[in-house]
Design a protein that fits this description.
GO biological process, one term: intraciliary transport
Keywords: Cell projection, Cilium, Cilium biogenesis/degradation, Coiled coil
GO cellular component, one term: ciliary basal body
CATH topology of one domain: Actin-binding Protein, T-fimbrin, domain 1
Largest sheet: none
Order of helices and strands: HHHHHHHHHHHHHHHH
Subcellular location: Cell projection, Cilium
CATH architecture of one domain: Orthogonal Bundle
GO molecular function: tubulin binding
Mean pLDDT: 77
Structural class: mainly alpha
CATH class of one domain: Mainly Alpha
Low-confidence stretches: 274-283, 613-617
Radius of gyration: 55 Å
Length: 617
């Protein structure tokens, strides 16, 4: 990665950290991060994405940290730029060329990374060996796990869709549904009015309710049939997976058997064909290796038997303490009876389902027959109407009945409306009369108060006019006096400034005259003006000469400083580079010292516990 690319990535990471996680770094501070600090920062970012990860590394070993972060990146579908071994080595050393791209990749799409981590927590495949998959219980659990994962993805997708739904659209949909509800209510009321005039209504409602019950029963039976079909399909899928797993196990065992047979035949051929010591040495080595493996397996078997015995003892202790309840024979027999009862209920429900299907077929056939008879009756009536020249009589009659019902409803509504209007108008008139009778004394009082108000208002206007005239006269007088005072103050300031200027000029002339007299007496008599000044001419010449010397020295100093600035800057940069190199060297020394201490501790542990190394091997 070039230096320009690295600088761009660092700028992006610093910006992402400030805007997303509110972690502020300068470019120099971030570039100075190394080793444990850089890994801590990466671990903090991962914790913000997936809170199931540890918040801080703490006392976790570097190998465990590298393994955990690498597994997290693998689950998040990160494309590793190097081989796994090289990745582990460079990542444990906190290589910036590896960590910077990881930070940039995680922070560039932070919200999507959080969703991906949450989804991967429940959708990640669990690696299971083929031998374990052959077990029926395990295969069923794996199938249930896949079903749950599919349901989880469907629910998550539905949640995302609901989260992106617009509230305004939902409100519009709700309003449309309410309007539909109102329209349906009006239609239902119309149907009720129509049905009130239909003869044999109770019998029709009875048959309609029976038909609805039959249709509901049909729907339930169809749902149960679909559930049975789905259960049959699931059983077929599980049976298929179990057969495939059995085939895989059988094939694996056959391959292993063939391999062992080939190995045995090779050993037998080698024993027959070799007559010298060199030919016998190879089978002996293989026999020794086989014996060694056999001993290892025996030791493992003994350890497993010991662990099994310890587990049985713990189980007995927990049973004695009452921590674990093992079903008694009576409880197990009751459980078996319960299963038999459920099986009998299932068979009874199956018989009921078959009977309901038969009844449904009969009802459907009866419905078809009734519909055919109704069609025939309608056709016969229409034929008779056309023969007698009154075609469409029934339709016209139905329309007339509909119009008459509508007209009757409208008349009822008009009558009710007129009655309500007359009642409201009478109530309004009564309220007006009562209000007038209540307001008469108040109106009389109001008229008296208005007369008083007019008299007071006229007095107020006269007084207001007099007050305004007085105020205007006062304002004019004040303005004149202000102008005169401003003029006088200006003249006073002018005269004072002139006075001070003249006084200063006189004082300067007096000082000059005094110096001239002192200079004259000093030149004539030879006596100095003061202890430090003989004459003013010599004093001013000496001061001028000193100022010229100081000016010349300052110019030379400026020239020298200008020539030495570039060299001093280079020296400062060299000292800064040397300081950084020394810091890096110090960190490398600390890391090497820590690694050496860890290796010494590991060697010491291996010398103390050689049995653990044998168990690991």
């Amino acid at each position: 990665m070039s230096s320009k690319q690295s600088g761009d990535i660092v700028e992006q990471i610093v910006l992402y950290l400030k805007t997303i996680l509110e972690i502020s770094f300068t470019l120099f501070q971030f570039s100075e991060l190394a080793g444990g600090e850089l890994l801590d920062l990466l671990n903090t970012v991962i914790y913000k994405i997936d809170d199931s990860q540890p918040e801080k590394i703490g006392t976790e070993k570097i190998e465990a940290t590298v393994e955990r972060i690498s597994e997290f990146l693998r689950i998040m579908k990160y494309e590793f730029p190097v081989d796994p071994e090289e990745w582990d080595v460079r990542f444990s050393n906190a290589d910036k060329d590896l960590i910077y791209p990881v930070l940039n990749w995680l922070l560039s799409d932070f919200e999507n990374m959080k969703k991906r981590a949450y989804k991967a927590r429940y959708s990640e495949e669990i690696p299971i060996p083929e031998e374990i998959k052959a077990n029926n219980t395990v295969s069923e659990l794996i199938g249930e796990l896949h079903e749950l994962q599919e349901r989880f993805e469907a629910v998550l997708q539905e949640y995302d869709e609901i989260g992106g739904t617009n509230v305004d659209e939902l409100k519009k949909t709700q309003q449309a549904l309410e309007a539909d509800k109102a329209r349906l209510a009006t239609k239902i009321s119309g149907f009720k009015r129509k049905l009130a005039k239909v003869p044999n209504l109770e019998e029709m409602l009875k048959w309609t309710s029976k038909l609805r019950e039959a249709s509901d029963r049909e729907l339930k039976l169809n749902e149960e049939l679909q559930q049975l079909i789905q259960a049959k399909h699931d059983l077929e899928v599980r049976q298929h997976t179990a057969l495939e797993n059995t085939k895989n196990v059988k094939k694996h065992m056959e391959e292993k058997l063939n391999f062992l047979r080939n190995e045995l035949s090779n050993l037998q051929n080698a024993g027959k064909t070799s007559s010298d010591d060199k030919g016998i040495a190879i089978p002996q080595q293989q026999v020794a290796a086989a014996r060694k493996r056999l001993d290892q397996k025996r030791r493992q078997l003994a350890d497993m038997q010991k662990a099994h015995q310890e587990a049985e003892e713990q189980l007995k202790e927990k049973q004695e303490n009452g921590a674990i309840e093992v079903p008694s024979p009576t409880q197990f027999a009751a459980y078996v009876r319960n299963l038999k009862t459920k099986n009998e209920n299932y068979k009874e429900l199956q018989a009921t389902l078959a009977q309901a299907r038969k009844e449904l077929a009969v009802m459907m056939r009866t419905e078809e027959i009734v519909e055919q008879q109704a069609k025939k009756t309608k056709g016969e009536i229409s034929r008779i109407e056309h023969e007698r020249g009154v075609g469409g009589f029934r339709e016209a009659r139905a329309q007339l009945e509909k119009v008459s019902a509508t007209k009757a409803d409208l008349d009822d509504m008009k009558g009710k409306t007129l009655e309500e209007m007359s009642t409201i108008s009478k109530e309004i008139q009564r309220n007006i009369q009562a209000r007038q009778s209540e307001l008469k004394p108040l109106v009389a009082k109001l008229q008296d108060i208005r007369k008083k108000k007019a008299a007071v208002e006229s007095k107020y206007l006269q007084s207001k006019q007099r007050y305004q005239n007085a105020v205007s006269e006062y304002d004019t007088v004040c303005m004149e006096l202000d102008e005169e005072s401003k003029k006088l103050r200006g003249e006073i300031g002018t005269y004072q400034s002139k006075y001070h200027n003249v006084a200063q000029m006189l004082a300067g002339l007096d000082r000059t005259l005094k110096r001239v007299r002192e200079e004259q007496t000093a030149t004539e008599t030879g006596n100095p003006v003061s202890k430090t000044i003989k004459t003013y001419a010599k004093y001013f010449q000496k001061a001028s000469h000193e100022l010229k010397k100081e000016t010349k020295a300052l110019k030379e100093q400026k020239k020298t400083i200008g020539n030495q600035t570039e060299a001093n800057q280079k020296q400062l940069e060299a000292f800064q580079s040397l300081r950084r190199l020394l810091q890096v060297k110090l960190e490398c020394t600390k890391i090497a010292k820590q690694k050496k201490e860890d290796e010494l501790k590991q060697d010491e542990n291996e010398r103390r516990n050689p049995d653990e190394i044998i168990d690991i091997l």
